[in-house]
Amino acid sequence: MLNEKIEACSEIADLEGLYFIWKNLIEGVSSVNSLTNLRLHNKGKINLNIDYALLLFEQLNIVYLQNNSVQLCDLGIKHLKFDLLSYRNWFSKTLLNFLIEENIISLDEIKYDSQIDKYILPRYNIKYKHACYRNLLLSLSILEKSNDGNFYLGDLFVNYIISENKVKRKISEAELLRKLEKQKLLGETGELFVVNYECKRLSIRKDLNKIKRISIMDVSAGYDIISFNDTSSESLDRFIEVKTFKGKPHFHWSSNEIQTAKIKSKNYHLYLIDANKMADPSYTPLIICDPVTYFAKNIDWISSPESFLFEKIDI
Question: What pTM does this model have?
Answer without folding.
Answer: 0.79
